[in-house]
Design goal:
This is HMA domain-containing protein. This protein has 76 residues and is α+β, with helices and mostly antiparallel strands. The chain is built from 2 helices and 4 strands, in the order E-H-E-E-H-E. It has one domain: Alpha-Beta Plaits, CATH 3.30.70. The longest helix is centred in the N-terminal third of the chain and has 10 residues. It starts with 5 loop residues before the first strand and ends in a 9-residue tail after the last strand.
Length: 76
């Protein structure tokens, strides 16, 4: 059974001494896919298996990991 990936927004600690690229590399190694990084805002977006959220939160330099809420219309 495959789990549907969820979209996440990850905020990077502005005081992080490592480069954003290094943090993104670590996030990818924890399963983050379809990565878009926004260095100006220190935010990374991507998709991941729900069971990998704690691993993303544990990456050095990550301030927060938030699930993006998607709105789907209900089928009649």
């Amino acid at each position: 059974m495959t789990t549907d990936k969820i979209e996440v927004t990850i905020r990077i600690d502005k005081n992080e001494t490592r480069s954003l690229g290094e943090v993104v590399g670590d996030l990818k190694s924890q399963g983050l896919e379809q990565v878009q990084s926004h260095e100006r805002f220190m935010i990374v977006n991507g998709s991941v298996n729900p069971d990998a959220l704690d691993a993303l939160r544990a990456v050095k330099g990550v301030a927060s990991v938030r699930k993006d809420v998607g709105y789907k219309t209900q089928a009649n």
